[in-house]
Amino acid sequence: MTAADVPRTAADVVRAAGTAPDLETLDARVVDCFACPRLVAWREAVAAAPRASFRGQTYWARPVPGFGDPHARVQVVGLAPAAHGANRTGRMFTGDRSGDFLFAAMHRVGMANQPTSVSADDGLTLTDVRVTAPVRCAPPANAPTPEERRTCGPWLAREIEVVAARVLVVLGGFGWQAVLTTLSEQGWDVPRPRPAFAHGAEVVLRRRAGAGAADGRALTLLGCFHVSQQNTFTRRLTPEMLDAVLLRARALADG
């Protein structure tokens, strides 16, 4: 991508995402995005003032692309990269406690070759699953604005089209609402009133007629409590609960 092609506005993101012919091109364009000034400033400020435990490390400090099997039938969708997690390592859910919990579960159910995820070059590979997010840059206070989520939405929409997964496991209520909004804006029929988030909630969506090459395609959303420390330390989300959701996602994909 030339300097002139780097996405710097919402319109640039629509063009760059919509014309990406494959996943490799899409991921490369995501990494070069500068469309949200507040998020660009924050991701770089965090990198300039790392936590003491990460001092001396070079932070990624760029948008984070999805990671995993390019032909996955299941996609796990969070909300945004963690400031000292994926914003540091450059890989979704890598380098923080949330990722420790998530990838350990994937390993238990046969979706990952190892239970840990500490760096982008640690040898982790995923089978039949890909992790992603509706917002690709770490936001202040873990809270992207509606405008930032809307600007970033075309990246997720194109990734869903290219990967062609059958199930989205959506982590947490904030992520659930962000995904429903993004899918609605990108051509999917979302019921009104919107389906409420719940752990284990299942919703089947279809592409609206005329929305694109995937017209009529079905996609199942499966809700799961977020793998945040707040949920895992209090056992609101247990390993057994997360395993059950991942196994259910695989069963739905098989069905």
UniProtKB/TrEMBL annotation:
Transmembrane segments: none
InterPro entries per record: UDG_Type-4/5, UdgB-like, Uracil-DNA_glycosylase-like, Uracil-DNA_glycosylase-like_sf
Signal peptide: none
Gene3D superfamilies per record: Uracil-DNA glycosylase-like domain
Keyword Endoplasmic reticulum listed: no
BP-aspect Gene Ontology terms: base-excision repair
Keywords of this entry: 4Fe-4S, DNA damage, DNA repair, Hydrolase, Iron, Iron-sulfur, Metal-binding
GO molecular function: 4 iron, 4 sulfur cluster binding; DNA-deoxyinosine glycosylase activity; metal ion binding; uracil DNA N-glycosylase activity
Superkingdom of origin: Bacteria
Keyword DNA repair attached: yes
Occurrences of domain Uracil-DNA glycosylase-like (ranges): 65-246
Family from the record: Belongs to the uracil-DNA glycosylase (UDG) superfamily. Type 5 (UDGb) family.
The protein's name in its UniProt record: Type-5 uracil-DNA glycosylase
Species the sequence originates in: Cellulomonas shaoxiangyii
